[in-house]
């Protein structure tokens, strides 16, 4: 049985803050464990998660990152190297928040990167963990707490992340989606479907507190397919759609066709427009 959570979307005070745009959203999640998590939508697939003891940043390439206190470590996740998921600006976060770790999918070459940043006086090496598909890594953060990171194989490039931290499970799909394109061959779409189902099988019945999952309008008739399978397979409390190319109407269209998921899908813009 899926447990409901209470989602309090704050009044629009966040949008009035300097530098914030109208696509930014705060959600306060009261988790079953009694802990509170705050989720901020940055842009496209970029999300910022604040737990009671750490910050997690996923697939940042654009948007305003909320202010951070130095006592909480920051973990930055990059699912793959595509420009809509990765911006080398993330390494400048070290200048304002030295307690930062980077979890990078293997398709991001690090050797040259480390050498380049060394020339600028920033030693990235101790901050970077490169991670392969289908693997699990457990890291100890500076606050003494462990974060356990499991990767899935994306159906596009790189990985999806399943993160366990302090009794909270967070999933960020990256570009793991059912990319079923009308113009593609039957074989391509069959392989795509098989690949997506294989990865979703790994999440079957898994309890996930917060998930970030693509809902891409460019897929037209098949835009809902990946999300529906994710909702069907997992026991996920709250799902934040992403990869919408600013066409946020797709969220309402999805819930209108899939009423049973309405309570678990978080709308992004309509709360504020
Ligand atoms: Zn993408």
Q: Overview of this structure, please?
A:
The protein is an alpha/beta fold. Helix 4 packs parallel to helix 5 (225-233). The chain has a single domain, classed as Metallo-beta-lactamase, Chain A (4-Layer Sandwich), CATH 3.60.15.10. The radius of gyration is 18 Å and the shape is globular. It has six helices and 14 strands. The protein has helices at 13-16, 93-96, 111-119, 186-201, 225-233, 249-257; strands spanning 6-9, 25-30, 36-43, 46-50, 55-58, 74-78, 100-105, 128-131, 136-140, 146-153, 159-165, 168-172, 207-214, 235-242. The strands form two sheets. It has an eight-stranded mixed beta sheet, with no helix packed on it. It has a six-stranded mixed beta sheet with strand order 9-10-11-12-13-14, covered by helices on one side. Bound molecules: zinc ion (ZN). The site of zinc ion has 5 residues, from loops.
List the helices and strands and how they pair.
Elements: E1 6-9, H1 13-16, E2 25-30, E3 36-43, E4 46-50, E5 55-58, E6 74-78, H2 93-96, E7 100-105, H3 111-119, E8 128-131, E9 136-140, E10 146-153, E11 159-165, E12 168-172, H4 186-201, E13 207-214, H5 225-233, E14 235-242, H6 249-257
Parallel strand pairs: 5-6, 6-7, 7-8, 12-13, 13-14
Antiparallel strand pairs: 1-2, 2-3, 3-4, 4-5, 9-10, 10-11, 11-12
Bound molecules: zinc ion.
